[in-house]
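Risk register update: the risk of archive-format incompatibility is retired. Evidence:
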Amino acid sequence: SSDPSEKPAHHVAISAPFAIGKYEVTTAQWNACVDAGGCPHVASDASAANLNTPARNVSWDDAQLYVKWLSGIGGRPYRLPTEAEWEYAARGGTATRFWWGEQMRKGKANCMDCGEPWRMDAPANVGSFAANPFGLFDMNGSVWEWVSYCWHNSYKGAPSDARVWDDPNCRT
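Archived output:
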């Protein structure tokens, strides 16, 4: 990428297994957290009436509340993935930019100029595109994804393993 925040390129070793959601968190799942008092109601638009679309307008802090609530009802510790875990999962075991190759292709993701079922006014339902080789859906395009640590303007000093890159002055 020509984005300076994605440099320098570096190798990361993921030595511990991890689990990640097969689909993005849906509006219905988010609403269950809201109804239980674990998550705030987030501003939405008319497209939020479709309960199978990804939850939108969720801040990093909101996402942290969701995984805390999910841990409480699921009986397991849940957390946001690290950036390295997310990228590994998104690539689906491949070494290319996207799991299907180096270039964005029509019909592979929910993004402008990617073909149907993309719509400008709302995201596509979760699972609308083919799963990657790991069986994960919608890892490219659609809505923004949150990871467990805050933004850094480069990978200089990034850990060489998949641990969370803590920063005491984190501003997500």
